[in-house]
Design goal:
This protein has 502 residues and is mostly helical. Helix 9 packs across helix 16. The longest helix is centred in the middle third of the chain and has 49 residues. The termini are far apart. 57% of the residues are buried.
C-alpha cells in the first residue's frame, strides 16, 4: 500500500495523547500498596467502568480494523455471532459467576484448585497463558499496519511503539488504571468510527441504502441472517447463536483476561450487570464496524485483490483512513487505533502477569512473595516480561502472510483451548466424581484435538476435517470433548469410597 505521512503537528497531538494517558495511569496507581490493588483494583471498581473495560478488552483494534474488512466481503453476517455472545454472557452470569464470588478467589483458575487441587490450577493457568499470548500478539500486530503507513515507521517499529506506550501505564497503574483508561479509549475509537461512517455515507450515492444495493448487485451478502446448516461456514445463524454462545462462555467464564475484571467488581450483582451489559454494547459496536465495511464496499466497489490493490481485507479500512479522510480526522483515527490496540494489550499484560504471579509464583515461593510491596513489585516486573514476549511474537506474526482476516485468526486461536478450559469448569461444577487427573487429561485431549483441527483448517497439516468445521464451533466442540473425556475417566471412581468424593 502507498504510504501517507502525517504532518508534525498531528504527530505531536498523538504523542501528547499517549503521554497524557501514561501520566493518568501513574496518577491512578499512586495509592497502590500490594498485589490485590495491582491485579484486582482492591475489588472496588464500579460496574459501568468494568463493563466498558470488558468491551474494550475483547474487541481491540481487530474490531476497529479487521471487522470492517471482513464485512467488506461478508456483509452483516458476522453480527449473528454477537447474538450468541449475549446468550453466553447470560449463561456465565448465572452458572459461573456465583462460584467465583464465594470466598476470596484471586484468579479464575483458583476455583479449580478448590475443586481438584493445585495441579489443575497450574495446568489450566499455563494453557491460558500460552493461548492468550498467541492471540494477543495478533491483536498487537494488526494495528501496526496503519500506524506504520501514517508515521513512515517500519511495521516492527510501530509494534514496539505500541507495546512500549501500553506497558508504561499498565506497569504504573495496574488494573485500576487499565479499566479507567479503557473507558477513555473506548470513547475515542468509537467516536472515530462514527465519524468515519458518517463521511462514508455522505460520499455514497443513496447513503447506506445505496451501499447495500451495490453490495447486492455485486453478489456480496447484503442480508443479516443465514439459516444454512453448514458447519464449514463461520457466519450462519447456528454458528453464531450456538457456537458464539459457547465461545463467549469460554472467553468470559474461563479466561483470566475477562474474569479478572469481573472479580474487581464490588460484588456478584455488579459483576453480572457488567457482564450482561457488555453483551448489549458489543452488539451495537459490531453493528457500527460492520456498517463501515458494507459502506466501504459501496465506496470502492471492487473485490479484495482487484482494482484498488488490496492484498488482504485487513488493508481496506486503513487505506481509506490514510487516503480519503481529512488529515485531522486521520490523526484522530490513528489515536483511536492506538486506543483500541492499547486496550487489549494492557488487559492481556495485566492478566498474564496476574496468572503467572498468583497461580505459579505464590504457590511455589509462598504468599510472602506476592503480598505487600513485594507483590506489587513482582506484578510490575512480570508486566515488563510479558511486554517483551508479546512484542517479539507480534513482530514474528507481522512477517507471516495471512490468508484470513486477522480477527478470524485471533478468535480461532483463542477458541482452540477456550472450550477445553470451559469444559474444566463444567467438570468441576457438574461431574462430582471427576478428579484432578481426570480434568487435566481431559483438557489435554481437548487441546490436542482442537489444535489439530485448527492446523488442518489453515492447511498446515493434512487433516480434512479442519476444512469442514468453522472456528465459531471450536469452543463448543472443545468443551464437549473435555466434559465427555472427563466424565468417562471419572467412571473409574464409581466404586471408590464415597466419602472421598466431593
Amino acid at each position: 500500500m502507498e504510504s501517507f505521512r502525517l504532518g508534525l503537528p498531528t504527530l505531536l497531538v498523538i504523542v501528547v495523547y499517549l503521554v497524557g494517558l501514561n501520566a493518568l495511569g501513574a496518577w491512578i496507581g499512586r495509592t497502590q500498596k500490594d498485589s490485590k490493588d495491582y491485579f484486582l483494583g482492591s475489588r472496588a471498581l464500579p460496574w459501568a467502568a468494568v463493563m466498558a473495560s470488558v468491551v474494550a478488552t475483547e474487541t481491540s483494534a481487530l474490531t476497529f480494523l479487521s471487522v470492517p474488512g471482513d464485512a467488506y466481503r461478508t456483509g452483516y453476517t458476522f453480527l449473528q455471532l454477537t447474538f450468541g455472545y449475549l446468550v453466553g454472557r447470560i449463561a456465565v452470569s448465572l452458572l459461573l459467576l456465583p462460584a467465583y464470588f464465594r470466598g476470596e478467589i484471586p484468579t479464575a483458575y483458583a476455583l479449580l484448585e478448590k475443586r481438584f487441587g493445585v495441579g489443575a490450577r497450574r495446568f489450566t493457568s499455563f494453557v491460558f497463558m500460552l493461548t492468550r499470548v498467541m492471540a494477543a500478539s495478533v491483536r498487537l500486530a494488526v494495528p501496526a499496519i496503519p500506524i506504520a503507513l501514517m508515521t513512515g515507521l517500519p511495521v516492527w517499529a510501530a509494534i514496539l511503539a505500541l507495546a512500549g506506550a501500553t506497558a508504561l501505564y499498565t506497569y504504573l497503574g495496574g488494573l485500576k488504571a487499565v479499566v479507567w483508561i479503557d473507558l477513555i479509549q473506548v470513547a475515542v475509537y468509537l467516536t472515530g468510527a462514527v465519524m468515519s461512517l458518517a463521511i462514508l455515507v455522505s460520499r455514497i450515492p443513496g447513503g447506506l441504502a445505496g451501499a447495500l444495493q451495490r453490495n447486492a448487485a455485486a453478489g456480496q451478502p447484503a442480508h443479516l441472517f443465514d439459516f444454512t446448516l453448514d458447519f464449514s461456514q463461520p457466519y450462519t445463524f447456528w454458528a453464531g447463536v450456538v457456537g458464539g454462545a459457547f465461545l463467549a462462555m469460554a472467553s468470559h467464564g474461563a479466561d483470566q483476561l475477562i474474569v479478572q475484571r469481573l472479580l474487581a467488581c464490588r460484588g456478584l450483582r455488579d459483576a453480572q450487570k457488567a457482564l450482561v451489559g457488555s453483551g448489549v454494547l458489543v452488539i451495537l459496536q459490531f453493528a457500527l464496524c460492520l456498517s463501515i465495511g458494507v459502506c466501504l464496499f459501496g465506496f470502492y466497489g471492487s473485490p479484495v485483490g482487484a482494482a484498488e490493490g488490496f492484498r488482504t481485507s485487513d488493508e481496506i479500512f486503513p487505506t481509506f483512513i490514510v487516503k480519503e479522510l481529512p488529515g485531522w480526522l486521520s490523526a484522530y483515527l490513528v489515536a483511536g487505533i492506538f486506543s483500541a490496540a492499547m486496550c487489549s494489550e494492557s488487559s492481556a499484560l495485566n492478566s498474564l502477569a496476574s496468572a503467572l504471579s498468583l497461580d505459579f509464583v505464590a504457590p511455589l515461593a509462598g504468599k510472602d512473595a506476592v503480598e505487600g510491596r513485594k507483590g506489587l513489585l513482582l506484578g510490575r516486573l512480570l508486566t515488563l516480561f510479558w511486554t517483551v514476549v508479546l512484542a517479539g511474537l507480534a513482530v514474528g506474526f507481522s512477517l507471516i502472510p495471512q490468508g484470513q482476516p486477522a480477527v478470524q485468526v485471533a478468535l480461532g486461536l483463542a477458541s482452540v483451548t477456550g472450550g477445553g478450559l470451559l469444559g474444566a469448569f463444567l467438570l468441576a461444577l457438574y461431574v462430582r466424581r471427576a478428579r484432578q487427573a481426570d480434568a487435566i487429561a481431559a483438557i489435554g485431549v481437548s487441546a490436542a484435538l482442537m489444535f489439530l483441527l485448527w492446523l488442518g483448517a489453515r492447511g498446515y497439516v493434512p487433516f480434512p476435517l479442519g476444512r469442514q468445521i468453522a472456528w465459531p464451533w471450536y469452543s463448543m466442540i472443545g468443551a464437549l470433548i473435555t466434559v465427555g473425556t472427563g466424565w468417562l475417566l471419572s467412571r473409574r471412581h464409581a466404586f471408590d469410597d464415597p466419602n472421598a468424593i466431593r
